[in-house]
Each structure stands twice: as structure tokens, then as C-alpha cells.
Specification:
The chain is of the alpha/beta class. The protein has 15 helices and 17 strands. Strands 1, 2, 3, 4, 5, 14, 15, 16 and 17 form a 9-stranded mixed β-sheet that branches. A 4-stranded parallel β-sheet has the order 6-7-8-9. The two termini are 41 Å apart. The chain binds zinc ion (ZN). The site of zinc ion has 5 residues, from loops.
Length: 439
């Protein structure tokens, strides 16, 4: 089982530190980690009693925060490509109906392995059987913000009332050092007023987040407006659901008034550029306007059925290019802003900016070591490293990953699990699930 914090101090020496601190400093120096937190960031870290890792030739980068995913869907990569949303969902619903807790765990382990190997140290998930995902988080040593999917009781295949299942899930995992359990209403198309309000009540009672899909497609917005007379954001405001400590995934189809409303209510936005493009949600999420209104934005990969990768490096690159091109403005979203989305702003929307998302004394030591001699990082100049991270760095440049000061990847090898076993179990789950595809 993964330890939540390292037993002995670790010092990484002589590395390029991409701090993401309030001044966004990039400097040469050391980091020292004790009991899972940074105790020194900068030149001249004390080495007493520590395991010393030579960081020369490496960049230390805060661990990425993937702000929206369904990690257990790893065995479903490629299962419904190049389909309209209707056909895509038909395939996924047919396959989902066959899922067992056991294959959800196998899928989660495969997805988490992929995330760790691409520098993600925290992720926000939305799915069912989240206990299985939590076990995978615990064993592989990543940080999981795990949302139990909730929908109206008459629409679910879950045993019992989904919102009660979410509450029980939160109770079971709330004290775990790596798991932050939460409630996740799926979207306005399967959740009525009662479900939204009970979800909010459960979150407030537990002091946890709420995570949900919001205004992903024009059709979703149109159908909700036809049914209720209100667009989803306005409706959620009117029923008293919107508020801080909540993260909305997608947020593509918004009016100016809705953008203002989301910002004013402190709703965090998980922007999923790849997923929106691949499923042809149309339009482009108004990220620049959301930021201008004061909303905080993170990046999500969504599932590998709609991305088809969990790489946050890819997501930064694409999110930046799409906004620039769509607006005919090469200055829209800088490399620094994109890296902020993937690190400190991701931590902020999770309500954890005070202890995650940057290299700062007192914060939890979640970070990656990037090999500066990798071709995708040439020229390895301090003034170019943020640009490289946003636009060119390859996942293969990531040598090591630490969560709470514990190495969970070293020299591209998982430390808490055997990839051969994880892969075999993931393939076995895929074998069963792919046979359930509608013809
Ligand atoms: Zn999603």
C-alpha cells in the first residue's frame, strides 16, 4: 500500500525549479521535503538526514491537476471514435451496463498509471463504483478527488438512491490522506431539482466539493430550456444550487450573463478542449471571457473514450491553440496561463490552492522531474521552460513523479504497481466490455 507521506526527508539538488509560486519564479536550486511537504525551495537546501537526489539536468515542475476525468474508462479507449454524440453515448451506455466493480478497479489502475507517467498527481473524477477507484488511488499513490455519480433515482442502475450512495461513499473515505470523496450530479439531463439540491446539501454537510457536467452541448442547453424555460446555468442559480466549492466540466455553451453568474458564484471551470473538439460540441468554450469575468479555470482530459489520452501536456497545448485560432489572437492564453490552469489554478478549483499546485514551503510535495536533455525540451533555457511545458514537452521527458514526497514513478517505472499486471487486467476488462458493443 502507498504511504501518504515519505518517512525520510528527500532533497533534490541543483535542478531548474518551475515554482508556480505567486511570482511564477523559475530558478536554479534545491527542494527539500519532510513528512510530505516542502521545507525548502531555492538554493542551499540543508541535506542533513535526507536522501539526496541529483537534480542537475532536470526541471522540477508541480504535479498536474486533471480537473475532469472518468479514469476507470481506460479499457474503453477507441471504442466509439468518430461517432455523433448520440451514437457515442449509445455505445457507452451499452458497455457501462456490463461494468462490474472489479473491472472498474482494473480500468482505474490502468488510467492512474497513465496519469502518473504523464505527470498528473491529482485528478477530479466522476463515475460510479468509486470505492474501486479509491482503492486504485490508494494502491498506486496518486491524489484522487473522487465524485460519486448521482442522477435521479428512477434513471439509475445503481442499487439504492444515488445521492445516499454518494453520502455513504464520502463517509467511508473522508479521512483518507490521498482520497477526497465528493458528490457528482451528472448533468441537467439526468438530474432534477431535488437531486441537485440534495447533492449540494450532502456536500455542505461533509465540507466536500460538488462536481458536474454543465452546458457541454447546444442540444443539452436547448432541451433544458424547452423543458424548464431556463438555460442550465440560470436554472441552477434559480433553484439555489450554484455556489463555491463546485467544479463544472465543459461550460461550452454560455451566454454573457451565464459567464458572469458562474464567476460571481465562484464556480470552478474544468475546460476539456480535446473532448469538446473530438465530440464536435461546436463553438469553443469562452475561456477568455470566463477568466475576464473572474472565474478560475482548470483543464480536464475527460475520459479516454472522448479524448483519447490522459496527458495534461497534450491538453495544455491544444487548449491554448484552439483559443488563439478561434479568436484570431495569438496573445489569447499565454504559455504561463496554460501552465497555471494545469497546476495552481487546478488546485484552486479543488479548494486546495493553499497546499497543492506549486513548489512553495509548507505545501504538499507533489511534483515531477522532467529530463532537460529530452529533444522536446531543447533549448533547455530557463526563460523557455514554461513555453516548452505548455507547447512542446513530451510525456516521455518525465523521468520521476512524487506525491507527498514519495516517489511513485522513478525513471519512467511505476513504483507502487507492476505495469505488466495492470496492463493484463486492463486488457481482460476490455475483452469483456468491447464484446458488449452494439452492432
Ligand atoms: Zn465527462
Amino acid at each position: 500500500m502507498a504511504r501518504a507521506e515519505s518517512a525520510s526527508p528527500v532533497v533534490i539538488t541543483d535542478a531548474l525549479l518551475v515554482t508556480q509560486d505567486p511570482s511564477r519564479r523559475v530558478l536554479l536550486g534545491d527542494v527539500r521535503v519532510e513528512t510530505g511537504r516542502f521545507t525548502h525551495v531555492g538554493p542551499g537546501a540543508p541535506r542533513e538526514g535526507a536522501t539526496v537526489v541529483d537534480g542537475h539536468g532536470f526541471a522540477v515542475v508541480p504535479g498536474f491537476v486533471n480537473a475532469h476525468t472518468h479514469v476507470a474508462m481506460a479499457p474503453l479507449r477507441g471504442i466509439a471514435d468518430d461517432r455523433e454524440l448520440g451514437g457515442f453515448l449509445e455505445t457507452l451506455f451499452a458497455v457501462d451496463a456490463r461494468r462490474t466493480e472489479e473491472d472498474v478497479e482494473a480500468g482505474a489502475r490502468a488510467g492512474i498509471a497513465e496519469m502518473l507517467l504523464s505527470g498528473t498527481t491529482s485528478f477530479l473524477d466522476l463515475y460510479y463504483f468509486e470505492d474501486a477507484v479509491a482503492r486504485a488511488v490508494e494502491s498506486l499513490g496518486i491524489r484522487g478527488f473522487l465524485g460519486w455519480a448521482v442522477l435521479d433515482a428512477e434513471l439509475t442502475t445503481q442499487k439504492g438512491v444515488p445521492v445516499d450512495n454518494a453520502r455513504h461513499f464520502i463517509e467511508r473515505w473522508k479521512d483518507h490522506p490521498l482520497v477526497s470523496p465528493l458528490v457528482a450530479p451528472q448533468g441537467v439531463y439526468v438530474c432534477g431539482k431535488e437531486t441537485w439540491l440534495r447533492s449540494r446539501e450532502v456536500a455542505e454537510g461533509a465540507g466536500s466539493l460538488v462536481h458536474y457536467h454543465l452546458s457541454e452541448t447546444r442540444r443539452e442547453v436547448h432541451e433544458h430550456e424547452t423543458k424548464t424555460g431556463r438555460r442550465p446555468v440560470v436554472w441552477l442559480e434559480e433553484i439555489g444550487f450554484l455556489g463555491p466549492r463546485s467544479v463544472a466540466a465543459h461550460a461550452v455553451w454560455l451566454t454573457g450573463a451565464e459567464i458572469e453568474l458562474l464567476a460571481r458564484q465562484g464556480v470552478g471551470i474544468a475546460h476539456c478542449a480535446s473532448s469538446n473538439l473530438k465530440l464536435a460540441s461546436g463553438g469553443v468554450a469562452p475561456i477568455v471571457e470566463l477568466r475576464a469575468a473572474g472565474a478560475t479555470v482548470g483543464l480536464g482530459t475527460d475520459s479516454v473514450a472522448s479524448n483519447n489520452s490522459l496527458s495534461m501536456l497534450r491538453e495544455m497545448h491544444l487548449a491554448g491553440l484552439v483559443q488563439k485560432n478561434h479568436r484570431w489572437d495569438a496573445t489569447a492564453l499565454s504559455a504561463q496561463e496554460l501552465l497555471d490552469f494545469a497546476t495552481i489554478d487546478g488546485a484552486r478549483i479543488l479548494g486546495r490552492a493553499t497546499d497543492l499546485g506549486s513548489l512553495e514551503v509548507g505545501k504538499r510535495a507533489d511534483f515531477s522531474l522532467f529530463r532537460l536533455d529530452h529533444p522536446s525540451l531543447l533549448p533547455a533555457r530557463p526563460e523557455a521552460i514554461v513555453s516548452h511545458l505548455a507547447y512542446s514537452a513530451s510525456d516521455e521527458a518525465i523521468d520521476s513523479v512524487y506525491v507527498a514526497g514519495v516517489p511513485v514513478v522513478r525513471h519512467r517505472i511505476l513504483r507502487n504497481g507492476d505495469w505488466g499486471t495492470i496492463r493484463r487486467d486492463g486488457e481482460a476488462a476490455a475483452e469483456k466490455l468491447w464484446s458488449a458493443r452494439p452492432k
